[in-house]
Design goal:
The protein has 6 helices and 4 strands, in the order ααααββββαα. The protein has a 4-stranded antiparallel beta sheet with strand order 1-2-3-4, with helices on one face. Among the domains are: 55 residues; 47 residues, no CATH class. It is α+β, with helices and mostly antiparallel strands. The chain is 47% helix and 14% strand. α1 packs antiparallel against α3 and α2 runs parallel beside α3.
Length: 147
């Protein structure tokens, strides 16, 4: 594990040990304003941890930010359309729950890694998880289901 990742893990572990006033103080230091009073401890930890990770590994790309903004502003039960995904960059982690188990798949230069095995396509990973044929991008929510 690279050194900055282990430092980041230590920092996140320290966050979990802080009490609410200490987390609020950390928020003020990081964001330059008071933490929202309604946020409970577990959300403060997650938001601050996300910011720490984004500072080290990079934040969301602009298309994802626009998608999330549209989704947050939408008032209907329908979800906003998915952003165009022409490719998944190495380092991206895809998460999918299947049959009560959460699966984490990482995009790597050669394809995808899941459960200690490398695969050339998301469809191969989806088949390994489910035992049946799937369109990999659809299985992982990168493409909308056909009507």
């Amino acid at each position: 594990m690279p050194r900055e990742d282990s430092t980041l893990e230590v920092e996140i572990a320290r966050l979990r040990a802080l009490d609410l006033p200490s987390l609020q103080a950390r928020w003020r230091t990081m964001f330059g304003r008071r933490a929202p009073a309604h946020l409970p401890k577990h959300l403060l930890v997650r938001i601050i941890a996300y910011r720490l990770q984004a500072d080290v590994h990079g934040d969301l790309d602009p298309a994802s930010v626009r998608y999330l903004d549209r989704l947050a502003k939408s008032r209907s039960d329908r979800s906003a359309p998915l952003p165009e995904m022409t490719s998944v960059r190495p380092g991206t982690v895809l998460v999918r729950e299947w049959d009560g188990v959460v699966h984490h798949v990482m995009a790597v230069d050669e394809g995808f890694a899941w459960n200690g095995t490398s695969y050339r396509s998301l469809s191969q990973v989806a088949r390994a998880i489910t035992g049946t044929r799937w369109n990999g991008p659809r299985f992982f929510g990168l493409r909308e289901a056909s009507p």
